[in-house]
Design goal:
- By secondary structure, the chain is an alpha+beta fold.
- It has 2 domains: 225 residues, P-loop containing nucleotide triphosphate hydrolases (Rossmann fold), CATH 3.40.50.300; 119 residues, OB fold (Dihydrolipoamide Acetyltransferase, E2P).
- It contains 8 helices and 20 strands.
- Strands 6-7-8-3-9-10 form a 6-stranded mixed β-sheet, with helices on both faces. A 5-stranded antiparallel β-sheet has the order 13-12-11-14-20. It has a 5-stranded antiparallel β-sheet with strand order 15-19-16-17-18, with no helix packed on it.
- A hairpin with a 2-residue loop joins strand 9 and strand 10.
- Helix 2 packs parallel to helix 4 and helix 3 packs across helix 4.
- The longest helix has 18 residues.
- Bound molecules: adenosine-5'-triphosphate.
- Adenosine-5'-triphosphate binds next to strand 2 and helix 1.
- The site of adenosine-5'-triphosphate (ATP) has 12 residues, from strand 2 and helix 1.
- It comes from Ureibacillus endophyticus.
Length: 356
């Protein structure tokens, strides 16, 4: 397993600047995810690491080795694409063995490696099956086995679950995570699905328009987003526009457009925010961190929407100038109704303050 380092990498296609000055260090053995909306540059970055594209400027290293313009087949990487790119009329074993045959490995050795990796991906009995006789989830595991059998230094996965239905996606994401941690291979995963990214990754890079917005563990990204884009892209979030009133050593108070005062902790201010008086700031709070009844930062609103999912109740609560999404865990008590007034409070440590 190797580390992957990108230093001031840019990539342009004609006039389109797909990647703008990317700096990134992925640790050996890490499960690292590129996350962002369509067109943000995830696949372009992955392709530069694979060697299918060369950067317009900047450098890429695997450990200390500069691989910026090295051919893909010289990089010892395994790849799984969205469509798997398997050979449909060949058997599972023939597909898995393909990369080893190309490398002219002795037959006996190929057999040992193929058998081992087939066990790891839980396809023990399926060696002689044809690809077109397998389910989508099984095909996905063949593609993974084929990428892993060459013992790559780095495994690259580009939306590998998007052809599977919801239930199978969930099962398969645990499978991929299990296999990856069993083998300890450095893995870079591309997805636009934030749940997938949160569930699988050691660290996530959130991208927008060819730029990095934040890099961190799933918890850091979810609990301490640095701006509104990250806060809204990852999970559900409320953002309320306000102006800064006072900032002390520990606390910050802001006033919303309708004159509501909210008090929070200074340690919850994004490092990117400016703290001048009267400065516009965005208060961010997760729906599950808002509580019923009186307390800190209390407010009264009118329920405009109710949804019950079993695990929790989701409400939209209309205030004068903004609407809050509120999620209350199910405790068996009756649901509130549309039109009802409700008092809410937000503990000051649950408010985050974002500059942009
Ligand atoms: P998706 O989730 O839709 O695959 P992505 O985040 O992987 O999106 P990229 O495919 O990396 O995004 O594309 C980034 C930008 O570069 C887009 O604006 C895209 O149109 C552009 N782009 C990508 N490949 C090419 C190419 N070969 N020629 C011209 N423009 C390209």
């Amino acid at each position: 397993m190797k580390g992957v380092h990108l230093k001031q990498v840019t990539k342009s296609f004609g006039n389109v600047q797909a990647i703008k000055d990317l700096n990134l260090s992925i640790k050996p053995g890490e499960f690292f995810t590129f996350l962002g909306p369509s067109g943000c540059g995830k696949t372009t970055t992955l392709r530069m690491i694979a060697g299918f594209y060369y950067p317009t400027t900047g450098h890429i290293y695997f450990d200390e080795q500069n691989v910026t313009t090295l051919q893909p087949n010289k990089r010892n990487i395994g790849m799984v694409f969205q469509n798997y790119a398997l050979f449909p009329h060949m058997t599972v074993d023939e597909n898995i063995a393909f990369g080893l045959k190309v490398r002219k490995m002795p037959k006996k050795e190929i057999e040992t490696k193929v058998n081992r990796i087939r066990e790891i991906v839980h396809l023990g009995e399926y060696g002689h099956r044809k690809i077109n006789e397998l389910s989508g989830g099984q095909q996905q595991r063949v593609a993974l086995a084929r990428a892993l059998v060459i013992e790559p230094d780095i495994l690259l996965l580009d939306e590998p679950l998007s052809n599977l239905d919801a239930k199978l996606r969930e099962e398969t994401r645990f499978e991929i995570k299990r296999i990856q941690s069993e083998l300890g291979v450095t893995t870079i995963y591309v997805t636009h699905d934030q749940t997938e990214a949160m569930a699988m990754s050691d660290r996530i890079m959130v991208m927008e328009n060819g730029e990095v917005k934040q890099i961190g563990t799933p918890q850091e990204i979810y609990n301490r987003p640095v701006n509104r884009f990250v806060s809204n892209f990852i999970g559900e979030s409320n953002t309320i526009e306000a102006k800064i009133e006072t900032v002390s050593a520990d606390d910050i108070t802001v006033q919303t457009k309708d004159g509501m005062r909210l008090r929070g902790k200074k340690q919850n201010v994004s490092p990117l925010a400016q703290l001048d008086r009267e400065q516009t700031i965005y208060v961010s709070v997760r729906p599950e961190l808002i509580q019923y009844g009186p307390g800190e930062n209390e407010m009264v609103g009118t329920i405009s929407f109710v949804e019950f999912t079993g695990l929790s109740a989701h409400y939209l609560v209309k205030m004068q100038n903004f609407t809050l999404k509120v999620m209350i865990l199910n405790d068996g008590s009756p649901l509130k109704k549309v039109g009802e007034q409700i008092m809410l409070n937000i503990p000051s440590e649950n408010l985050y303050f974002l500059g942009e």
